[in-house]
Amino acid sequence: MTADTQDNAAPAAESTAPVRDLEIKDTQIIFNSVWSDLEKDYSVEELCFPKEIFWLNGAPGAGKGTHTRTAMRFRDFTEPPIVVSDLLKSPEARKRIDAGLLVGDREVTELVFRALLKPNYQSGAVVDGFPRTKVQVECLKMLYAKLNELRGKHLNTPLAHKFPKPHFHILVLFIEEEESVRRQIQRGEQAIAHNREVEASGVGKKEEVRKTDLDPEAARHRYRIFKEQTYDALQSLRDVFYYHYINTNDTIEKVSKRIVNELKYQSSLELEEATFDRISTIPLAISIIQHARQELVTRLDGYEQNEREIFARVVNLVRDKFMPIIIRHAISGRAIVNSEDEVFDHPLASAMLIDIFSERGFHATVDIQREDVPACVDRETFEIKTYTKRVVRVHISFAGSEIRRG
C-alpha cells in the first residue's frame, strides 16, 4: 500500500487543538526518526542538501512532467527530477511492500531525503510529488528549520560552504476538474495507441496506462482526492516558503511563460546570503510554534511542583476575579482587567497568569503600569507627597460569541 492509498483510507480527523497537538508530536517523532537514521548513515560533511529545491505538486493532468522541465531550464538543473512515484518502485520500497508493510509518511519522507543527499543534486533539484499529506508538509518545515540550524552551526567554519542558505519553492499546478478529467482520459487513450504501435513495430518502449486514465469516474475521484487532501495540506506552506500557484488551464507555451515570469519575480525578492546570515540568528516563528504547547505543559507542571502556593493564588485570582469580567464580555471576545493584587509582587506571577490563560484557550498579555498617587501634603514645605501604585493591566482575547439576528 502506498502513502496515497493509506491516506485515502484514513477517516477525516476533527479540527481540535488536542488533535493538532497530537499531529505535531507524531510528526516530530517521524522527522526525528528519519533524521537520526540519516546521521547514522552519513557523516556531517555528507549531510548536504541541495541549495535550491522546487517541491512540485499538481492536480492530475496539470502537466507536471511537462512543466518540470520548465523549472529545470529556468535554473539550469541538469539532473532529472526526483519523482516520488518512482522512488516507491525502488528496491527499498518494494521490499516493504512485498513484505506486506505500509509505505507511509515516514518511509516516503526518508526516501525523498536520501535521494536529495546524492551529490549530483547539490546545486539544485526538483521533487515531483512531495509533500502530499499534512505529516509530510510538517516534515518539510522541520527540514527547512534543520538546514537553517546547520547553516548557523557551521557558519564561519571550514564547512560553511557545505551548508548554503536553503531556498525552498513550492510550485503548485492547478486546473479545473472537468479539464483534469478530460486530460487524464486523453492521456490514457494516447498511451494505449502508443503501446499498440510499439507492439506492431517492435520499436520503442511501452508507456504505463493508469487505471484512472481509462475511467472518467476514477479520474474524477483522483482529482477530488488531490483537491481535498494534498491541495489542502499545502496551504500552510504559503506562510513559510515561496509559494508559486500556477493556473495551467492554457497552452503549454503560455503556461511555461507564466511559470518563468513567476519564478523571476520571486527571485527578485530573495535575500542576499550576507543579509540572510545576519538575521537568521532570530528564530523563525514556525520553529517557536512547533514546541510551544510542549513547553507550556512543562512550565505549568513546574509551577504546580515547585511554586504550588503562589500558583494556587494566581489560579484563584483568575477564577474568582478575572473570569466574571471575561464572561460579561463573551460576545465581544475581548476584555481588559486591572488588578492591584499583591500576588503580582512575586516575579513569576505574571508569567503564570499568561500560561494559565493560554492553556485554557485564551490569548493574554500583561502590561504593568506604575502611577504616582497623591498621599498627603507636607505642612512645612506644602509639597504633595505621593506613593507609587502598581496596576497590572491584563488584555484577554478569545473567540467571541455570535448573536443570531432575525
Can you offer a commentary on this structure?
- The protein is built from 14 helices and eight strands.
- The chain is of the alpha/beta class.
- It has two domains: 281 residues, Rossmann fold (3-Layer(aba) Sandwich), CATH 3.40.50; 91 residues, Translation Initiation Factor IF3, CATH 3.30.110.
- A hairpin with a 6-residue loop joins strand 7 and strand 8.
- Helix 2 crosses helix 6 and helix 2 crosses helix 7.
Task: Give me a quick take on this structure.
This protein is of the alpha/beta class and 406 residues long.
CATH class type of the largest domain: Alpha Beta
Query: How many domains make up the coordinates?
Result: 2
What class do helices, strands and sheet pairing give? alpha/beta
Number of strands: 8
Q: Say which CATH homologous superfamily of the largest domain is assigned.
A: P-loop containing nucleotide triphosphate hydrolases
- Apparent shape: elongated
Helix content: 40-55%
Q: Give the overall average pLDDT.
A: 84
